[in-house]
Amino acid sequence: MRIKFNAPVTLTFSLLCTVVYFGNIFFLNNLIPFFTVSDSVNWSNPFSIATLVTHSLGHASVEHLLGNLTFILLLGPIIEEKYGSSNTVFMVIFTALVTGLVNVFFFNTGLLGASGIVFMFILLVSFTNVSSGQIPVTFILVATLFVGKEVLNALQENQISETAHIIGGICGSIFGFTLGSGRST
Length: 185
Description:
Elements: H1 8-26, H2 46-54, H3 62-83, H4 85-106, H5 115-125, H6 137-153, H7 162-179
């Protein structure tokens, strides 16, 4: 028996998140600005623009990192097998970009972490056994439970971006309906 690098996008993304987290500790929190999108972007600074996507690699605590990686490592290989590595990379980058842009244009807070991608994966995985033209009951239930919970949590004062979760879920839903059963590597 040999070990197989079965989900390259999922594993690479997870490794990058881990390297960023521990690299930030090693460099005494000096890396985290490169992995946090702030409430405004300096459109003339490439590093500032890059944070619209790189924020998904930064995490505030080991609990935050492990919570996201648990879902990413559980769901990512299923997504990657169903939709292919190229589509998975696109979906991860697109979801990170959209959550970053929504944060910049509508909120005055910073944003970091892969939670939007996690919620995209959660909603998208409910489409794995679907034929064209069908809406799976699992999607309806997952959307109701996960997105409904985030809407309720958004009413509370906390340090969590429920909006990023909801945007990620919306992205996962859109990808599930548009990509359907298609696969490309």
